[in-house]
Amino acid sequence: MKRINLWSGPRNISTAMMYSFAQRMDTTVFDEPLYAHYLANSTAVEYHPGASEVLATQENDGTKVVQMMMGQHNTPIVFFKQMAHHLIELDWSFMDDCVNVILTRNPREMLPSYNQQVEKPSLYDVGYPAQIKVLEYLESKNLPVIVLESKEVLLNPPKVLSELCKKIDIPFDKNMLKWEAGARPEDGSWAEYWYKSVHRSTGFAPYKAKTAPFPEALESLLEEAMPLYDRVAAFAIKA
Asked: What's the number of domains the chain is made of?
């Protein structure tokens, strides 16, 4: 069985990636199984929208979640959409037996979007330090470093997804390029706050650069995040 972790940051195309993999007949998908564990072990529970419902509807014990992930499933491929910063208070050794893909996004585009949902985000909230930790863990274990950058995916979904499948050692399935609009049964309880755009989509939307001025209040956070993003994005599959 091939277990794929997509270690994303927030306000990325991670849900679209989950919907993409859900189109494969050989794959089961899970939406952020470690979210409640993260909320139960961090101050994010105080300001994440819908946090109480996440805690009520998901397993709060990350060790039990990992046991589920590493257990038996009904398909030969299992895809776990994850947030890299959810990896707290956990033994990371399960990652050694998974395919780990880092999904990143330029903070100049991501930070204004995230700020609309969570005011005054910290560097920790937006996930770039956590992605560096995942990268360093993979390197320390001599595990493959596979990175997707959201802009590159949107510029050429067939090419980038084909290359991703090659790196994962699974056949590319053209069904991954489109899906029906609307919610999926796998969506977490937080979908009403975060998934409005992807629910209107039927595939990967063409890349559009942001034209609005970058918020001055986020400039210092951008300065912190950019070198971390650059380090991870250097590994990204190109369009």
From this structure: 1
* Cα–Cα distances in angstroms (integers) from residue 113 to residues 119, 183, 200, 212, in the given order: 11, 21, 17, 11
Q: Are the CB atoms for 160 and 152 separated by under 8 Å?
A: yes
Q: Where are the beta strands (DSSP E) in 25-120?
A: 27-31, 77-83, 99-104
Integer Cα distance of 235 and 148 in angstroms? 8
Q: Is the dihedral of CA 230, 234, 236, 239 positive or negative?
A: positive
- Separation of alpha carbons 222 and 163, rounded Å: 30
Return the CATH number at 221: 3.40.50.300
Give Cα 217 to chain centroid, integer Å.
25
Measured from the Cβ of residue 193, the count of other Cβ atoms closer than 10 Å reads: 13
* Residues 6+ positions from 83 with CB-CB distance below 8 Å: 7, 8, 9, 10, 14, 32, 34, 35, 38, 127, 130
Q: Cα 64 to chain center, whole Å?
A: 20
What ranges in 156-218 are assigned the alpha helix state H?
157-168, 191-194, 196-200
Q: Which domain holds residue 191?
A: 2-233
Query: What's this model's pTM, rounded to 2 decimal places?
Result: 0.96
d(CA 131, CA 142): 16
Q: What is the pLDDT of residues 50-78, one digit of tens each?
A: 999 999 999 999 999 999 999 999 999 99
Tell me whether residue 133 is in a domain.
yes
The pLDDT assigned to 113 comes to 86
pLDDT, tens only, 112-169: 988 887 788 889 889 999 999 999 999 999 999 999 999 999 999 999 999 999 999 9
